[in-house]
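User: Hey, my collaborator sent me this sequence without any context and asked if I could get a structure. I don't really work with proteins. Can you help?
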Amino acid sequence: MSDVKYAPAPVEPPPSYETTASIPTNPPSTRSSLPRMPLPLDLPTLTSIRDRRVILASASPRRRQLLAQIGLTNLFVIPSTVPEAFPKTLSPFEYVLQTATQKAMTVYSSQIDSPEGEPALVIAADTVVVSPRGQILEKPTSESNHIDMLKSLRDSIAHKVYTAVVVMAPLSSARDPGYALESTVEETTVKFGKDLSDGMILSYVRTREGADKAGGYGIQGIGAILIDRIEGSFDNVVGLPLRPTLTLIEKVLQDDDDLVDEFAEAEEEE
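Assistant: No problem. I've predicted the 3D structure and written it out in structure-token form, which is a compact way to encode the shape of the chain:
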């Protein structure tokens, strides 16, 4: 099989089989069948930052979609431009945590004196897929590499997905270092179906959905057909565990409130 490097996947959907002649010029209007969108979460923490400058230090559309689910829709997307050069000899836990921390610190430092104003919040994340032998899997480099990667995951007992999330916020007080930072690393165990055929794997690979994803699959899309079961958070495998992320947001904003209160009490004592 040819070991050709991947080209960018097509953006436009495939053309319809229907000819334009068969489509009515003025189709009858129908009432939209789209479901009503839920109201945003009414949480004081989220309400306090919805109209402020919240930065997602990632170009991942999946992470942006997940944050939109909890009502953070007006995000500034500013990916880190620093190469991810940490050695793969680190444990997966340390690797994702250091990478996510670097992303957050780099973007925070570049934006703290921005003409648009300092960010109210910076959210960064990094996700890795890890083989049963502890190898951190990269994105597939070719079709044959992609097939071998997925076959290896199928033939193993299970593999792990780790996501580190780092959230930063500037402090209102002058307390060094001038920001609050909280982080977490979440782990999910994923098991592919043992009856997954080579033909199914080849068919999935040729959809190109997993070509730009570490581990070579997207659980939130067609890649769900590969999965037998998971243990842990689904959205952690997608790329951003929502509940822990919300907890971190609450913590960094609470850290600021606590320090402001401490500063005020110290001034009163003086």
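In plain terms: DSSP finds seven helices and seven strands in the chain. You can pass these tokens on to your collaborator as they are.
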